[in-house]
Amino acid sequence: MKKVLYILFAAVAMATACTREAVPEQQSVLTTTVAPKEGDLMRVTFTVTVPETDLFATQTRAPFGEQPNIGAGDVYVAVFGAGESDGVGGSLQNFLKARILYDPATYLEPPIRHNEHDPYQSTPTGTGSFKYKYEVLMPLSNDPLVLDFLVGACDSQGVPYTLDHPLPVGYEREVMPQVYAMGEQAGYWQRKRISGVFPKIVNGEYKMTEYTSDGQVLPIQDQDYIADDIAELQEVKLIRNFAKITYKSSADAPFTIHSFILVDTPKTSALAPYSSTTGYNTAYTTASDAGVIMSAYRGYVLSHELNSGIEGKTFITASSGDPRNSYGYMYERTIPTNSDPAFAESGAILYVTWNDLSWVTNTELYNSLNSNPNRYYKVSFVDNNGYVPILRNIEYRFEVSSIVADTHPTTAAEAYAGAFLGDVSANITTSMLDDISNNKSRIVIGGRDGNHMSYTAIGADNSFDIDFYFYPVSGNDEVVVTNGKASTAANGAMVTITKDVETVGSYTQAIRTTSNIRVTSNTDGTDNHGTITVSLEDSEAGVVKKGKLKILGQVEGFRPLYREIEFTVMEKQEFEAGDIQASASPLGSDAMNQATTVTIVLPDGLPRDIFPLQIKIEARNNALTSIPDNTVTPAISALPVKYGPSAFGGSKYNYYFVKTITFDDYATLSGTSYVYTNEFPCKFKTRLSSGNATTIKINDLKEEFFVEKTLTLSVQ
Q1: What class has domain 435-569?
Q2: Do the beta carbons of residue 584 and residue 713 sit within 8 Å?
Q3: Is the peptide bond before 612 cis (omega within 30 degrees of 0)?
């Protein structure tokens, strides 16, 4: 039979449905011997179940604003051809608005019950049902079809798709990436593949429609064929494209969580779990267990914009209160990565009261919390195993047992301005601490004498021995170190030590090899420590290489505690950043005591371990005197002067100045990445009464990391 493609809208569909010339005009006809022909419409019924009917029971359900109303019929069906063997449908054939068959207030099937892992879990009130029955007019089809059920769908500008603003025509792989949910608009989706649309046959005749929604018999010219029952459409579980999140404090926590707000959440989401590059995540269409969906997760977050800030946000009562008011909603979120700053951390600000301060050893902190136990903390989405991706259609119940923080803000705004808590290991603000604890375990890198979290090598054949200590129980000096195998700590807990090599952003990998963990015992039998030898790649001109060694210690039942040691391999660097180079401002004339500025310009991304960076500035013949800079607040004092071997060679000694730049001077944390200050001006006056034009040499004091820069101080 010849196949006909249709794009049908409401007016067209109803007009087509009114032509039945071969059917006798009599009110009592409910079947006919006249077979439907290709293009004839048939009434297809389907039943949808939805998670949390209360979410869209009103038009203004916070926090997702104006909602599509499934009970009022805001359900659309996109009909695609069967498509190709890759599981994606063919071209769009119809875009239809479904009609609800029963009033939800009177359609009283028994409430559908689900287990706690099912995303449709809710508490039915008994006055309604999860189920809603719909019908659509679809043409007869002897070919398989793919149906996408859409609620709350809109285009890239946020305009809802309706019969007046239909989906674009194209193949399913072209259409679905153009279907969004935005702002605070909830959305739902599901996809079904059916074998076709066939007429319903009763006693050898074709079944026709009987009654209107109010029970009246339809005139024969208004009757349509009834489609045979389609098994796949008996229960269409709509999937919401956002997650449900709540927080509460554990029973043994020394604090109580009163309320929370979600912060830095996405503004836009794909309505369906579909990507033009990776296709569908079919786990959403088949699995009801969150664990199955999590394992199949690929991520379909489309928004690189965040709902940032806390202005205008209302705290949500924690789950110890009324469950109907205890949840927040947000679009799905990938695991944050430093290599893609668009996927920054998201999380919540918790409002807590400290009930037990026995853990506080610092007198000042104790007095502060004792006088004001109500505090705010910004936490990221983590569990015992690390970061948690926030996926659509899943309920997340975060139970917090401990809070470890450097600061204890008294306002939500102060908490929001700080870094996320919850991952003490990975948080960039603690990334360079070589001794950390999460109140359960402790890990120490390189002993206790200085910082050992960053190593820089220039040239070839470089390697470093990295020593570390892992204390399974806080305050317990017994250390368990093995080659990645489980061992038993003094308290009977199972402990595992592992190592991993990771890349740093888009840098070329610096680490060539790492050895197995070697165990060394001190002579007194205490503080057994592990050692890993890291061999680095050779340096290359113009290429900065970076790599990270991650050392993880995990006590059974807890999230791993780990440290990341960064390695940098490079040639000596130039004093420049882009088109700006270290420079000296010219003199106006050949005269005594003229002011001039020598500007040191550093490149981005310098490793932390070369700081504090001491820059040597030497002028030939002692031609400069350092002076304070009083034009800035606070004022910058004159540079210290030293006497030593001259950079101009020979056996000559000379005076030179030292500019010290700390890492904090150079790099400022902004969100999850650093913003660099490249230029460091130094103020001088000339010392010579004539011949002020001179040469200046600049280098790091030990001549380890930079190529010497020669400047000419000239007279204009």
Answers
A1: mainly beta
A2: yes
A3: yes
